[in-house]
Amino acid sequence: MAGRKKRNSSQREPIGKTKSQILLFIADREKCDYTEIREYLRSSLNVRNQKGIRGHLSGLFTENLIKKESQGKGMSDAYFVESNFSTFRRDFNFLNENDFSLDFLKTKYAKDMIVSDDFFFYGLVNILKLIGIDLFDLMNDEKKFNELLNECKKETIDTNQIEIMQEQREKISDSNVQELISVLRTKSPEELLDFIGNEFKLAKYPMLIANQLFPVDTRKEIMNIISSSRSALDYFLNLKIENKLAFFIVLFRFFISIFFVDPSKAALLQSFNQLREQNFTNEVIKLIPNILDMQNVLNDNPILTTLKAYFIIDSVNAKIVENEYSTETLSKILIPEVKQ
């Protein structure tokens, strides 16, 4: 019986598509072998080149996007996606570059990972790592550092805190500071937490801080948002935001208030309006101030508020995973409750 015709060069899939489809197929299963992958590609994409398929699998393995394990002599290797934060982040970034991040959010692997406490915790460690690197780079640049100080003064941030920042900048060339930044740049969140525990005997401290800054309800809402919005998840994993100077001001005012100033945090995020008005994603961002004001989110943790902003943008652009949370939340945003 004659098989289906091979595709000519004009019918071949775009670069990255077949590789992405393989990764998505594996991510939607606990494990699968080469035969299952080959049959899936044959039926769904008419991909029949076994050498090409093996090459894609080899590439995914080499790039630490998947793992494989032997199933015994004469049997095909089993492929799976490792359940840790760093692997999740690599897989998401790869698929996001190839425009398959929404499909990734729908996989069993992504759904199971995002709702786990470990994923959220390592995500926070990663955010702190990225903020630390960005702050170091900012403080190492005299012009940008002076801009930060001027913004702090405009926002009436406590003078003592500004003086502390100036003192810290003077220590930036210290060998211990340089070593710490090297650790931040080179270690994964998992390795970084081990380093904190082993070097400083503070293994439990980051978790205590996380619980203080992110109560259960806040964590749950963040998990719901990043389960639905690829832009929010991209921000959570990579801290991608253009106006980082304004973002740092918001972080300083919020987190300083928790430990030193006003535990209610009520009036300390008014400057977030300035950040929301910045075009850090696309033109739809101009819709956000009015929408967020309707929802009275000025008391939110700034990371949660930023995630809400990205969620709204993805919703308007129809780039959202439809689920119970996204449907209910979008209806509340577009049709706010009328106060009696």
Structure description:
The protein is built from 19 helices and 3 strands. α4 (85-97) packs across α14 (230-238). It has helices at 17-27, 34-45, 50-62, 85-97, 101-105, 108-114, 117-139, 142-154, 159-170, 175-186, 189-200, 205-213, 216-228, 230-238, 244-259, 272-276, 288-294, 302-316, 324-334; strands at 32-33, 67-69, 78-80. It is an all-alpha fold and 340 residues long. The radius of gyration is 23 Å and the shape is globular. It has 2 domains: 13-113, Arc Repressor Mutant, subunit A; 114-334, no CATH class. The chain has a 3-stranded antiparallel beta sheet. Residues 256-298 and 335-340 have low confidence and may be disordered.
Topology overview:
Elements: H1 17-27, E1 32-33, H2 34-45, H3 50-62, E2 67-69, E3 78-80, H4 85-97, H5 101-105, H6 108-114, H7 117-139, H8 142-154, H9 159-170, H10 175-186, H11 189-200, H12 205-213, H13 216-228, H14 230-238, H15 244-259, H16 272-276, H17 288-294, H18 302-316, H19 324-334
Antiparallel strand pairs: 1-3, 2-3
Helix pairs in contact: 1-2, 1-3, 4-14, 7-11, 8-15, 13-14, 13-18, 14-18
| Percent range of helical residues | 55-70%
Give the total of beta strands.
3
Number of helices: 19
Q: How are the strands of the biggest sheet laid out side by side? A: 1-3-2
How many domains, in number, for the residues?
2
- Strand/helix succession: HEHHEEHHHHHHHHHHHHHHHH
Q: Termini separation (Å)?
A: 73 Å
Mean pLDDT, all residues: 75
Q: Structural class of the helices, strands and pairings?
A: mainly alpha
Q: Enumerate the spans where pLDDT stays under 50 for 5 or more consecutive residues.
A: 256-298, 335-340
Shape: globular
Task: Describe the largest sheet.
Answer: 3 strands, antiparallel
| Share of β-strand residues | under 5%
**Radius of gyration based on Cα positions:** 23 Å
